[in-house]
Amino acid sequence: MGTKAIVIVGKYDEEHLKIYREAILRSGLNPLLVRIVDSSWGESAIESNKIILENAWTAEMAKIEEKTLPASRREVILGKVPIVKERIDKPVYIKDMCQGLYRACTLCEESCPYNALKVDKKTGIIIDYDKCTGCGLCVSSCPLSAIQFPSVSQVALFELSKVKGDKTISCYKDNKNSIKLPCVLMLSAEDIILLRNGGKLNLVCNGCELSKDISKIKDIVSQINDKIGGISFVYPEGKIEAKDPKDVSIQFNYLSNKSEARKEILNHEKDLPLYYEVSINENTCTLCESCAKWCPTSAITLKRSKEDEIFEFDPDKCIGCKICVNVCPEGNSCSGPKAIKVEKKERPSKKVLIRDYLVRCRVCGAPVGSRRSLNLVKKTMKEKGAECDDEWLERCPKHRAEYAFQQRFGMAAKFKPRKFGEQA
């Protein structure tokens, strides 16, 4: 990495953590590249922290703030009050991993209960660190892992899941032996399944101001525990007891994001709560093709036969980004619900979402559109006072232009449009 990463074996309590942190900041090290392990925790704790540091490629992306440390008497006399660079361990946005989904995906923004994230459809995700509490719900929500914590990257979680044996995971505020994360709320269903893969999994939330947002992860743990067992979750108000563990074996070489992890998991275990189902309201859908054109994983595809236009859905490919919902032009907050809906579903099957008659050009036979979409075009044009007869409507763009030309200059007139760049 080109930057020093260190595991300190000593005492993990409030007093010693303060001492270590000040020493780390004074030395100029990145505190997010230093992990503290209590000497009583054993070799396995050291190894798990090494794995986190070996995959801490996000550590240098953290927001930096200057901080004044307590000064000694000598430093005050000499006028050398120590000012250091503090790294803020709150989620960072990695635009390259977003793959352009920010143009239509709003999962991270919707997941944040503090309104700390905004989606800018031109530049990407904007994080307001004054509002951000570091709960990690946005990290959990992103299917492409484009939002990650600087101290524990997504790849670090995947690599930890390869370690065989039982695991206990909690946050930095827990003084007991566990794998420390910024917050357990950052864990997605994919993370929990893979971490359970190597042995039993115990999640611990000791309670803080963020524990009020714990309902989502409780639901995820309950659903996965019902399927494969071996997962317990201790939180301030109670506990989810681990059910009898089933044998789970998910082998992989390298994963970079949760979408890849989901695919790998479903290749091994089909009966897990990682599926989404798309449904279409046939009364409002006009087959405009927006959902199929925008779908980043081709979970929704358009197929055409000689007579029909068909939209098919493959649940194995759907990552639940809801882009299809966001780009659907039919329905909004004023006129009613969208024509398309995405919701969690237990192992749905491939299906035809909607089918309609395919209209082809009356002249050349090229596909023009579905009957529903053309009916909408006709209705819209009439509402705006424009003429729209079926002869013009049921032609491809080229032959529509030809028809309009002949309507004006006579059917005998020859239509010879110039090619691009051709001189008049």
Automatic annotation (TrEMBL):
Gene3D superfamilies: 3.30.70.20. PROSITE patterns: 4FE4S_FER_1, 4FE4S_FER_2. One of its GO terms (molecular function) is oxidoreductase activity. SUPFAM superfamilies: 4Fe-4S ferredoxins (SSF54862). Keywords: 4Fe-4S, Iron, Iron-sulfur, Metal-binding. Residues 89-122, 123-152, 276-305, 309-338 form the 4Fe-4S ferredoxin-type domain. InterPro entries: 4Fe4S_Fe-S-bd (IPR017896), 4Fe4S_Fe_S_CS (IPR017900), Fe-S_Ferredoxin (IPR050572). It holds the Pfam family Fer4_7. PANTHER family: ADENYLYLSULFATE REDUCTASE, BETA SUBUNIT, FERREDOXIN III. This is Oxidoreductase. It comes from Candidatus Aramenus sulfurataquae.
